[in-house]
Specification:
By secondary structure, this protein is mainly alpha-helical. The protein is 71% helix and 1% strand. Helix 2 runs antiparallel to helix 6, helix 8 runs antiparallel to helix 9 and helix 8 packs across helix 13. The radius of gyration is 24 Å and the shape is globular.
């Protein structure tokens, strides 16, 4: 009886049947990734506020390292695709483990706290630290993303993995989004120095230890504690490493790892040919445009959003909680995503979501016009909640849409090439992650932000401009996502069913 019970847990190929352990383990992988990735939003703030690097210089350096980051992804993907060596843990798990080991300390490499160094030393520290961090992250993340297609071939199970990946991502973002701002931002008290010596509410001189208040809002100023950012990054590296170890140990790969790229007839791999096929792969392009929109808006808005909370609302330490309130609606879709996908389809459900996000972006355009700052914050939150509701569906199925795009590549061109398709998708995503924040930093400088003044010395006009910038970025993000999902991505429910049926016949004939 025991033997029979054990056999029921195995699939036709002798692997453990797909189940909850796979979903939890895969979620742990993205938790590990986000213990590092979520710090990207803090990088610009750290170098802008604590290291006081000028916006134009930081923009140029950020663009430089992110372009290398984008180029690096296809190279890593190609290396994995062409690696035929036998590994005890398997090829994908081995690469993930190597990257995870590097991320133990690499996440802190870009947060070395030397604010008094000269500009040349600061520039070198930034570039080298970022390159080391990014290399380790890429080695772990590229095979992790590609691995979804190897855990299961079932479309519904892939959608579940994508959903659980989103869960891992959400929990991975909770620490840097909510807890980190509380740890790294400190209320300013009077120490006898600085530009503010008189309480704007009472007109009396400050005493040592008094709260230093913003004359415009009457709220206490806040400063960034750079040393704490460094130590927090180290601790997050440890948490991420533990999550990666759990995933590597518990996940089951059910598809031959060397099938991730089919080079029939021994044809030598050609990155230019793969790039051309990628551009012809409408689902991959559509999913990529949507992801670029998400990062061009949301990722780019991170620094401006932090500066806005620090200068306009004087609540930088609470900015994470506010962001969490806005994005909690995404969780609402988690229990229902499988039913939504089965009934309406990934594309159809995501299109409706992006429309709701556009509405949220429009609401956000209202809050900079509200004079009362408490009321303005409420309007901002309403827009953010609507944006989050719309993002909920797309976030849950975005990776499953890319897995379907990989199948589309095989359906149309006869080759799967998971590693390269995912890497080119990641290339454009990371290009957006680099170009977006770089452009926003230049815009912030044009709108009046002066790094040397920190968050205390910015003008009221600059603080107001940050509000317009943030609201515009969220609306832009929603519009681009709508274009990618609704107008470019062409795998609706009916087409997806046809594709899966034809691929199933093809795969059956191969055995």
């Amino acid at each position: 009886m025991a033997k029979s019970a054990k056999e029921t847990k195995l699939d036709a190929n002798g692997f453990r049947k797909f189940g909850m352990l796979d979903k939890i383990a895969y979620a742990a992988g993205d938790f590990g990734c986000n213990m590092s990735f979520a710090l990207k939003g803090t990088v610009q703030t750290f170098w802008l506020v604590y290291m006081t690097m000028e916006t134009g210089l930081l923009s140029a350096l950020l663009l430089l390292v992110q372009i290398w980051d984008a180029v690096n992804d296809p190279l890593i993907g190609s290396m994995i695709d062409n690696d035929r060596r036998k590994y005890k843990m398997g090829k994908f798990k081995t690469y993930i483990f190597i990257g995870a080991c590097g991320l133990l300390v690499a996440g802190a490499a870009v947060f070395l706290p030397f604010p008094n160094a000269n500009v040349v030393v600061k520039s070198i520290l930034f570039v080298l630290g970022y390159i080391i961090w990014d290399a380790c992250y890429t080695v772990a993340n590229v095979p992790y993303g590609s691995m979804l297609s190897l855990i299961t071939e079932d479309s519904g199970e892939r959608a579940q993995l994508s959903t659980w990946r989103s869960i891992g991502s959400m929990f991975g973002n909770i620490v840097p989004m909510i807890i980190l701002p509380m740890l790294i931002w400190q209320k300013v008290t009077y120490d006898g120095t600085g530009d503010y010596h008189t309480n704007p509410l009472t007109g009396e001189a400050y005493k040592i230890g008094d709260a230093v208040l913003d004359p415009l809002t009457g709220e206490q100023f806040e400063n960034l504690l750079g040393e704490r950012v460094f130590w927090a990054a180290l601790i997050m590296g440890v948490f991420g490493f533990v999550a990666f170890l759990f995933m590597v140990k518990k996940i089951t790969i059910r598809v031959d790892e060397n099938s991730v790229k089919t080079n029939e007839g021994g044809v030598k791999f050609n990155i230019f040919s793969a790039f051309g096929k990628f551009l012809k792969n409408r689902p991959a392009v559509g999913a990529t445009v949507a992801a670029m929109g998400m990062f061009l808006g949301m990722q780019s808005a991170t620094t401006a959003n932090t500066i806005m909370f620090a200068t306009y609302f004087n609540k930088a330490s609470m900015s994470g909680i506010v962001q969490m309130i806005g994005f909690l609606p995404m969780v609402l879709f988690l229990p229902f995503i499988k039913k939504l996908v089965n009934k309406f389809g990934k594309k159809e459900a995501s299109v409706v979501g992006t429309i709701v996000s556009v509405v949220g972006g429009v609401i956000m355009l209202v809050f900079p016009t509200v004079e009362n700052r408490d009321t303005a914050l409420i309007v901002y939150l309403l827009g953010l909640v609507a944006f989050g509701i719309g993002m909920g569906v797309y976030t849950c199925v975005s990776w499953a849409m890319m897995a379907d795009a990989i199948d589309y590549n095989e359906w149309k061109f006869g080759t799967r090439e998971e590693g390269m398709v995912y890497s080119l998708h990641s290339f454009f995503r990371k290009l957006a992650q680099g170009v977006g924040p770089s452009v926003v930093l230049v815009i912030m400088g044009a709108l009046g932000y002066v790094s040397e003044l920190g968050t205390i010395g910015q003008s009221a006009e600059t603080a107001q401009n940050m509000c317009w910038l943030v609201s515009g970025l969220y609306l832009f993000s929603a519009v681009v996502q709508f274009i990618g999902v609704a107008l470019i991505y062409n795998l609706d429910k009916k087409t997806l069913e046809k594709m899966n049926a034809e691929l199933a016949v093809k795969h059956s004939a191969e055995f």
